Amino acid sequence: MPYAKDVDAIASLLKQNPTWNAIKPEHAARMRAQNKFKTGLDIAKFTAKIMREDMANYDKDTAQYTQSLGCWHGFIGQQKLLSIKKHFGTTKRRYLYLSGWMVAALRSEFGPLPDQSMHEKTAVSGLIEELYTFLRQADAWELNHLFRALEEAQNAGDNAKADELIKQIDNHETHVVPIIADIDAGFGNAEATYLLAKQMIEAGACCIQIENQVSDEKQCGHQDGKVTVPHADFLSKINAVRLAFLELGVDDGVIVARTDSLGAGLTQKIAVTEEPGDLGDQYNSFIDGEVIEKAEDINNGDVVIKQKGQLVRPKRLASGLFQFKPGTGEDRVVLDCITSLQNGADLLWIETEKPHVGQIAAMVNRIKEVVPDAKLVYNNSPSFNWTLNFRQQVFDAWKEEGKDVSAYERADLMNAKYDETDLGKLADEWTANFQRDGSREAGIFHHLITLPTYHTAALSTDNLAKGYFGDEGMLAYVAGVQRKEIRQGIATVKHQDMAGSNIGDDHKEFFAGDAALKAGGKDNTMNQF
C-alpha cells in the first residue's frame, strides 16, 4: 500500500481506539513499510514468482541469465545485495546461493567439516532464515534513511522534496531476492528430505537444489569417491520436495536436479527393472562387469544381472559398491537430466571437472533434443584453477589452428611470466566472457560461485594481518580498509548505523517521544564520517 494511503488507514484505525492516542499514524505506517515480509513463506512465494519470470525471460533471450554468489552468513548476503544496488541500481537477476559446502565448513557446531553431509541439517534452514533476516534489515535500513530525509523535508516545508522522497519510498526495491538452497542429497530417506525441505521453505527458500548421490556416502562434487543412486530413488526425493512446496502453498517453487554422474564411478544399488529398456535397465546397463558363460562361474556371494541378453557379474568393491563402465559419465548425465526434467525438476545442475563451454554444450544439446527448454544452474567453482584451465584452452585452440605455441609450456601456464602475454590476455578475455558464452551456447540460466566469500574472507584477513602485525601497524587498517570504505561509499564505515543504531533511535522516539534516550547525538563518533 502507498505510504500516504497507509497513514490515512492507520489514522482511521486509531480514531476507533482512543486509548492508542500516543501512537502517530506516520510512525506505524513507516514501521510497516520497513517490514514488507512478515513470514518466510511470504518470502518464498514472492521470490518463486521472480525466479519463474526470470526463467521465462531467459527462454526468450539467453542474454537475460541470472547470477549469484554463495554467502555463509547473513551479513555477507546483506552486504552483497547492498553493493549490487549501489553499483547497478537494481537487484534484478541477482540471487543468493546457499552452499552446503560452506554450511559444513563454517556453520556446524562440530567445527569445520568436509562437504559430506555430516553437519546438522537444521543449520541449512537456519542459514536461510538468517540471510533473509539480514536482507529484511537492509530494507529497513535503506528506508529508514529515506524516512529521516522525508521528515527533514517536511519540517523544512520543502513539499517538492517530500513528494520525491515519498515516491522513492513507494517504489522502493527490496533487497529480498531468491536463494538457491543446497539440500545436498536430502540428508536421509525421502521422508527426511521432505521434512528438511519444509523447514527450508518455511524459512524462505523458493528454490531447492538436490543431488543424485547416496545420502550417507555424499561427497563434495569436486572430490573422488562419489556414489550415485538409481533414478527411482532420486525421483522419490524430487517428489518429496515438490510435495513440500505444494503443502505450504508455494505452488511455483523451483527444484534444481543436480547430477554428479560425470565424476561418479560408483553406485550403491542395482536398479529395479521389470523389462528390457526401462529406466532401471538403462541404469544397470552402465554397470561394469564380466560376462558369465556358465553357472559354475558364479562364486559364493556373487551378484548377477542381465545386460543386453547376457548374464553379467558386476564389478563389486570390498565396500559393496558397484563400478560403472569407464567413459560412460556423459551418457549417464544426459539420461539423469532428461529423466529429472520429465519427472518434476525445473532446472538442471551438471557438476563438471572444468569450466569448458564446449563440454557443457555437448551434453546440454543432447538433453535439448528431448526437452527443448532444458536450462542449467552452473557452478563456476573455486575448485577449478580458472587461470590454468583457460590458458590451456587457448593453447589447445591455437595449436589446433596451427599457430606457433613453442613460446609456451602447457603444463606451466599458471606461471606469472605468462600474465602479460597474448595467450594470457586472451585467456582472461575468455574467462570474462565465460558466463555470457555459456548462457548463449550451453543453456546456462544461472551462474553461481559456490564458496567465493569463504575465499574473500581468508584473503582480506591475510592482507590485514600481514600489515597490522607488521611494519604498517594501524596504517594497514586505515589505508587498506577504512579509507577505502569511505572513498568507495561502503555503508559499513558507519558500522553503528549499519547495525541498526539509527533505526533503534527512531523507534525509541516513537515509543517514548521526547523522553527517548538516543545514541546518535553530537557525541557519537559516527558523526566523524
Automatic annotation (TrEMBL):
InterPro entries in the cross-refs: ICL/PEPM (IPR039556), Isocitrate_lyase (IPR006254), Pyrv/PenolPyrv_kinase-like_dom (IPR015813), Pyrv_kinase-like_dom_sf (IPR040442)
Any one GO molecular function term: metal ion binding
Keywords: Lyase, Magnesium, Metal-binding
Residues annotated as binding Mg(2+): D182
Catalytic reaction(s) noted: D-threo-isocitrate = glyoxylate + succinate
Residues annotated as catalytic: C220 (proton acceptor)
GO biological process assignments: carboxylic acid metabolic process
Domain of life: Bacteria
Obligatory cofactor(s): Mg(2+)
One Pfam family it belongs to: ICL
Cofactor note: Can also use Mn(2+) ion.
PANTHER family hit by this protein: BIFUNCTIONAL GLYOXYLATE CYCLE PROTEIN, ISOCITRATE LYASE/MALATE SYNTHASE
NCBIfam families linked to this entry: PRK06498.1 (NF005074)
Protein name: Isocitrate lyase
Protein source organism: Marinobacter algicola DG893
Taxon lineage: Bacteria, Pseudomonadati, Pseudomonadota, Gammaproteobacteria, Pseudomonadales
